[in-house]
UniProtKB/TrEMBL annotation:
Keywords: Ligase
Region forming the signal peptide: none
Protein name as catalogued: UDP-N-acetylmuramoylalanyl-D-glutamate--2, 6-diaminopimelate ligase
GO function term, MF aspect, one: acid-amino acid ligase activity
Superkingdom per UniProt: Bacteria
Record-linked Gene3D superfamilies: Mur ligase, C-terminal domain (3.90.190.20), Mur-like, catalytic domain (3.40.1190.10)
Stretches assigned to the Mur ligase central domain: 5-136
Entries under SUPFAM superfamilies matching the protein: MurD-like peptide ligases, catalytic domain (SSF53623), MurD-like peptide ligases, peptide-binding domain (SSF53244)
Length: 320
């Protein structure tokens, strides 16, 4: 946003910096990670107060920048005992997953602990919820205000959006589009469903002309856990979508994994669901990633409408 001046001249009452990882690096985006990180942390210089993820890389630099810009800061993070960075020296709001509740977690702030139950799976969603609570608190909402629990009823379209067929087939539509988000998604599937030894199918593509490292990263995030990969179209722009798919397929080093290229995205989703049903003796999960709630593909420089992943999934599962 700062690179292309989308928020030029705006000052935010509360800004949030959740995390940072190599992404959006290409000749038409950020030439280096350093440039990406510099642009992303401009949110600190343009906010009156900050919420910062304590698990973020380069945390010290972020806190230093907040201090330099006189931005009072609330840090949030996962309890170190549950996977948080051991280097955490101080976390204001601590999120602790509750093993007895697959979508439940606690947030502790000073000596007060509040319990939450989301409508969405995903430890990363729990952290996002903790960030939202921290932002609301920085904006003046008391930590123990019942309004904080409004986050429990949130279901974001295209973000860990779950669909279940009458036959028990689980399909998730998610915006995962790089190594970190794909790995987190597959990790969550195994956390929740691992005891059922799921057969996981990944339907994925990636953008043309930018962020080239996503082609390997998406595959790497699921490699060794997904049993079937179907590569398809996802905003190819001026590139040949089949060549993008072929490049992604070349990174599947697991010889036991099934690999297909189906450029037509609708047909790719249909195939994934129908083939999963052919393995009815297994518990099947189909992950359709990259587009989330979007209903357009960028092809040859133009936005081309299409119904969207969720619409195709509902139809194929008979949920319309």
């Amino acid at each position: 946003a700062y690179k292309v001046h989308r928020v030029h001249g705006l000052t935010f009452d509360v800004g949030a910096f959740l995390n940072i990882s190599p992404d959006h690096i290409s000749p038409i985006e950020h030439p280096t990670f350093e440039d990406y990180f510099h642009c992303k942390r401009q949110i600190i210089a343009n906010s009156r107060a900050m919420v910062i993820g304590a698990d973020s890389d380069h945390l010290g630099l972020l806190l230093q920048a907040a201090e330099q810009h006189d931005a009072p800061t609330t840090t949030f993070g996962i309890d170190a005992a549950d996977g948080g960075h051991e280097s955490q020296t101080h976390v204001d709001m601590i999120m602790t997953p509750d093993p007895s509740r697959k979508t439940g977690f606690d947030i502790t702030f000073h000596d007060d602990t509040q319990s939450f139950e989301l409508d969405m799976l995903g430890e990363f969603n729990f952290l996002n919820a903790a960030a939202a609570v921290a932002i609301a608190h920085r904006a003046g909402v008391p930590f123990d205000d019942p309004a904080m629990h409004a986050i429990e009823r949130v279901q974001v379209p295209g973000r860990m959006e779950r669909f279940v067929g009458d036959d028990g087939l689980h399909v998730y539509v998610d915006f995962a589009h790089n190594y970190m988000s794909t790995k987190a998604l597959v990790d969550e599937m195994l956390r929740v469903y691992g005891e059922r030894h799921p057969r996981i199918t990944l339907v994925a593509g990636t953008t043309g002309g930018k962020a080239i490292d996503r082609r390997e990263g998406i595959v790497k995030g699921a490699l060794g856990r997904a049993e079937s990969f179907i590569f398809t179209l996802d905003d190819p722009n001026f590139e040949d979508p089949r060549k993008i798919c072929e490049e992604m397929a070349s990174f599947v080093s697991d010889e036991s994994a099934e690999v297909q290229i189906i450029v037509d995205r609708e047909q790719a989703i249909v195939t994934a669901i129908r083939e999963a049903r052919e393995h009815a003796e297994r518990f099947n999960i189909v992950l359709v990633i990259g587009k989330g709630h979007e209903t357009r593909n960028i092809i040859d420089g133009k936005a081309v409408y299409w119904p969207g992943d969720a619409t195709i999934v509902r139809r194929e599962l008979g949920l319309n």
